[in-house]
Amino acid sequence: MTLVKRFMEDAERGGMHILAAQVRMNGEIVDEWTRFPAKPRFETYSVSKTFAGVGAGIALEEGLITLDERISESFPEASYDITDENALSITVRDLLTMTSGLSETMLWRDGYERKYERDWIRFFYKAGKFVNKPGTAFLYNNVNPYILGCLIEKKSGQNLREYLRYRLFEPVGIHNVEWTSCPMGHTIAANALQINVDELGQFGQMLANGGEYNGKRIVSESYIKAMMTSYSETGEYIPSQPPVRAGYGYQTWIDGVNHAAYMWGIFGQYCVVLPEKNAVVTVLSLEPSDGGSNGNYDTSPLRKVIWEDLVTQV
């Protein structure tokens, strides 16, 4: 029995609705299953954040941004009347590591501001609760990658989707990219990227390759290593035995014990990168039992099956 077949049987037995599952080894698809033969695209929700993280790495290498620059200095029109030093001193590094100092989440899917606020950058500065000094407290948050994408747009003159079109998406085989914008035209960055199982697997392979895909360097190996380094301990758990508390790198969840990097989005979107094995596990699903930032790895049924049937078996 193949890995994916066993996974599908266990998932279906648990009442889970899988859309696609794929295993890559050494750059090749070795096993897969898809509910729709044409492999349509689906929104991958917070998986988008890791794409934004790679975008920041490219912008760093092009000299557009620096890790320690203050974000507020690039948005004087949105922060001109802000006096809170915590809000004014947030850096690129703080956004990447989800340590911007916020004590409350912003721009969540069901948030009021997503439906009624037009200028989300101004909303960030005016409504944000910057209780903590930047760099000191982890809080998983949609607004951090959004502001990061807006900064790259400000420096490059292109929104994040267009900035990455020929720098990332086309080189890894993601064509005519679909990524939603906010009311002001800025790429949302935190979510709303639509891709299929092949495309997400190809992106994961680029990360497993240390920033290279099909012989083309996308982003430096040193930056990928930085992305996959844990800078904060989180409240999430990897369902290993015993469960491992997940860390957080640059817009990426980190399992430092089992040497894995995770992308995940609500409703069961996963891409697990295992660089030491040169393996990538990708699962897309519609699984309402999966939590978002409050989900727990050691209790989520789907995450446990992915871990047991796929991640540990490659």
TrEMBL record:
Q: Which SUPFAM superfamilies does the record match to this protein?
A: beta-lactamase/transpeptidase-like (SSF56601)
- All copies of the Beta-lactamase-related domain together span 4-285
Origin superkingdom: Bacteria
Q: Name one Pfam family in it.
A: Beta-lactamase
Q: What is the lineage of its organism?
A: Bacteria, Bacillati, Bacillota, Clostridia, Eubacteriales
The family database entries (InterPro entries) matched by this protein are listed as: Beta-lactam-related (IPR001466), Beta-lactam/transpept-like (IPR012338), Diverse_Enzym_Activities (IPR050789)
In which organism is this protein found? Lactonifactor longoviformis DSM 17459
Q: What is this protein called?
A: CubicO group peptidase, beta-lactamase class C family
